[in-house]
Amino acid sequence: MLEQAHECTAAEAAAEECIEGDLVYKSPGYAQWIGWLDTLGVLFLFMMSNSQINTIKFGMSWHFYFMMEFIDPKNGRTLCPESELVFGSMVCVTEPLVRISFPGGVRLPPKEEAKSSGMDVGGAGDDSARVLFCCTGDIRAVPALQFEELQADRDGMKEAGRKTLHPRKAFQDMISTMGTVSKIWEEAVEYICGTSRTAKRFHLEAKIDAISQMNLNVAANLKAAWWESALLARFEPRRQIMMQFQSNIADIVDILPAVKSCVLNEDFSGKHEEFVRPLHPQLQAMVQEATALTELCLSATYEKQINEIMKSAILQSKTHIRKLQRILVKDYKNYCPKPSDDLADETIMVFSVSFTARKAADLAQRVIEWNEEDTKWRCWRGDNVLLLVKGAWEGLRNTWAPGKIFSYLSVPQQPGNFAGITIVFFLAIRMNGYVFTSYTPIMPATLALLISQYQSTAFTNNLHRLLGVLLGKVLPLLILSGLSIFDCGSKMRSAAAFLAIWLYVWVFMYMYFTSQTWSLVGCLIAGFGVYPLLTTCTSGLNTDLFNTRYCELGQITMALAVQLLVDSLLKREGPEAAADARLDRNDKENDVESQAVACLSFLSQGSEAFQTLGLTIEPLPGWAKWFRTTLKTLGTHQQDWFMFWPHTSSPKLQHQALQKALNEADTCMARARSLVTEADPKSRIAAGPQTPFKIALYRDSLDILQNCMNNLTLFLMASKTWAETLF
After folding, report:
1. Which of 225, 245, 341, 624 is the most exposed place for a label (fewest CB within 10 A)?
2. C-alpha to C-alpha distances, 722 to 555, 568, 569, 607, 716, nearest whole angstrom
3. Between the CA of residue 306 and those of 289, 296, 310, 363, 394, what are the distances in Å?
4. What is the bridge-based pairing of β-strands 23-25 and 5-7?
5. Residue 101's pLDDT is what?
């Protein structure tokens, strides 16, 4: 080891070369502030990025581990032997980065082994070739195994137990989703055609809330599946047709919240029984036929070419659905000749059933026309390269786009996190003695894993962190003390250690997944406790181990105390203020929704309302102009509306603009709901001068906004159907 610095000796001080006790650097140009700037600069970039939160946490934590060793003046850099220098003597294969990239280090194969594999190891590229041989030898099994599995599965998904690849997982999820949708529809029709309210409506509410997340998982698996097809150097046609299937299923799932509103709001009064009794058999038959047809279409996804028997069954079911739709429309007009507020929920239910049947019929038509061997389903093989470039660009843009970096609820860029980590970074450098050792990365690296979001609950979160980390450090010591009754290397010791580690991880991971209040504590206990449990068995009392653990506990406690103090001084925005701001933003983004709902309510009044306002309905091609006129008559703000509904003669483009606005509102709604727990006054440690946040009112406001968005979804579905059939 070459020392970067050493303390000035008495001899050097006598020669007036330095002051005794000061650090004398090996390199005259050494400057510590450059290392500090590098460390804090990378920390700032991590916090400003819009990466996944776990990427940010662990990236910052490992960065401190590396940089603390790098900037420590007492550490040096091992001279790399010439035999280990490669790529023009610019890379040393024994450097820490290379050893981390290839666990266990990089073993350069001898020339004889490389030659036996057909690799030219002569000439100036000798060492480089040997490194490439070693690296490719370690990783070449991955694509080979993947290729074998894909080849074996080319002709379909015949074995239910094989579910490792994204397309298969997406397929299984779609089958599961449609099975759940089928049960939801059957139960919803039975409930809405009943005679009184029952607790069944809450069961349906829970099912509909859960199905949306299932559909998001399907979309994510399909989106991530392109690279698996790229291993075969071709673009998989099945994934393309599955993406179209998923789009249809997404429309079916998107309309379910409106069904939930009908189920929850229906009071079974007025003309309800008179209306639903004759329609009940038709609704039931249409739901069963539509869901069965959709599942039949999904089962044909992995067939290269639909056989005649399956095609005939799909075509027959599609024809039957169209017939049921016409009968349902005819009967609906007979039993409800004009719009009625009394039958509003029943009307929405009928429309939703008909829409679901329409989507099933559309899906059947796509399946009938599909042929994987047809040239129109083939793509240029370079599409895989384009997808790779596109994915890299989208990842870069989503990570560093200014609009996303400065988003209102960006977690890591809160100034308190940066200030707290920076303070403990310099404390870790300067403090030496007692439980502290200078240039130890424990304090900043641990605090980087525990960044917080809101000041009002920071004290509670810090207590949970402190409890989780301390127990994660202490409990393994107690477990190892209990295991010390067995001799090291004995079978009983091995069995007991395995059982202890397994139970330890199982208990606290179960706590993490099931507890709403103590999940963070369970995660930290499991995460910080696994490593100490895997220490080498030693006979007798290991005082060094206990001393190390005690110092770690003191340093972690100090880091959390500093973060708590910073949170208290900076007074970061609490979740109540964030919730208010998010709800206010939701209102602004939902201007388009309130206008659409107002328009729907206006339309439901019937011809009398049109005559009162002096309006006439133009033919459907001119509906956009009439729609704007209606909004103006209702006194809405056209300028706000046209932000989402631009001036264009194309209803398809108008529909896309409104769909984009709805997606943004969905994102805001999800974020607003995530603040409910944080904003609850019960989470405060002590009451302050502020007025307690009205959490019940906040929840009710979100429910009302959600109903508005559900109604807008119906509007979008209806307008989408018009655009496809009439324009």
Report:
1. 341
2. 66, 57, 58, 21, 10
3. 20, 11, 6, 14, 36
4. antiparallel
5. 40
Q: 248: Cβ–Cβ under 8 A, 6 or more apart, which residues?
A: 294, 359, 362, 363
Identify whether residues 225 and 319 lie together within a single domain. Answer: yes
Q: Tokens 């910052």 — which residue? A: 60
What are phi and psi for residue 305, nearest 5 degrees?
-145, 130
| Cβ atoms of 214 and 173 closer than 8 Å | yes
The two structure tokens encoding residue 531? 């490593």
The reply to whether 399 falls in a domain is no
| Structural contact between residues 207 and 163, judged by C-beta atoms closer than 8 angstroms | no
Per-residue b or e along 295-321, where b marks 16 or more CB atoms closer than 10 Å to that residue's CB = bbbbebbbbeebeeebeebbeebbebb
Domain boundary pick from 536, 551, 570: 570
Element (H, E) at 249: helix 237-254
Question: How distant, in Å, are the alpha carbons of 112, 211, 294, 387, 538 from that of 166?
Answer: 41, 19, 21, 16, 45
Q: Is the same domain home to 217 and 264?
A: yes
How is the chain split among helix, strand and coil, in percent rounded to 5?
70, 0, 30
The answer to whether residue 650 is domain-embedded is yes
> 670 and 616 in one domain?
yes
The pair of three-digit structure tokens given for residue 100, joined into one six-digit string: 């981390």
Q: Tokens 């024994």 map to which residue?
A: 94
Phi, psi angle pair for 433, to nearest 5°: 125, 160
113 and 188 housed in the same domain: no
Domain that holds residue 341: 166-381
Tokens matching residue 520: 């963070």
Whose CA is closest to 260, among 213, 206, 215?
A: 206
CA proximity to 684, closest of 519, 454, 456 = 456
Helix (H, G, I), strand (E, B) or coil at 118: coil
**Residue 583, in any domain of the structure:** yes
Using an 8 Å Cβ cutoff, are 23 and 5 in contact?
A: yes
Low-confidence ranges of the chain (pLDDT < 50): 1-3, 97-164, 375, 377, 408-413, 456, 582, 585-649, 721-727
* Domain identity same for 326 and 418: no
Other CB atoms within 10 A of residue 203 CB = 14
Give the C-alpha separation, 408 to 183, whole Å.
Answer: 39
Tokens of 116: 């036996």
CA-nearest of 584, 585, 563 to 455 is 563
Give the number of domains in the chain: 4
**pTM of the entire predicted model:** 0.55
Q: Are residues 529 and 676 in the same domain?
A: no
Per the listing, tokens 């290379």 go with 98
Amino acid sitting at position 465:
R
| H-type alpha helices, 88-199 | 96-101, 111-116, 126-139, 141-152, 166-192
Same domain, residue pair 329 and 367 = yes
Burial of 34 (0-12, 13-18, 19+ CB in 10 A): exposed
Q: How large is the angle between the packed helices 458-483 and 519-533, nearest 10 degrees?
A: 30
Do 580 and 560 belong to one domain? no
Looking at 555, 570, 585, the residue that finishes a domain is: 570
Query: Which amino acid appears at position 629 of this protein?
Result: T
404 lies in some domain: no
Tokens in use for 697?
């009112």
Dihedral, 63, 66, 68, 69 alpha carbons, nearest 10: 180
Tens of pLDDT, residues 481-534: 888 888 888 888 889 999 999 999 999 999 998 887 788 888 889 888 888 888
Length of the chain measured in residues: 727
What radius of gyration, in Å, describes the C-alpha atoms of the chain? 33
Q: Could you report how far apart the first and last alpha carbons of the chain are, in Å?
A: 77
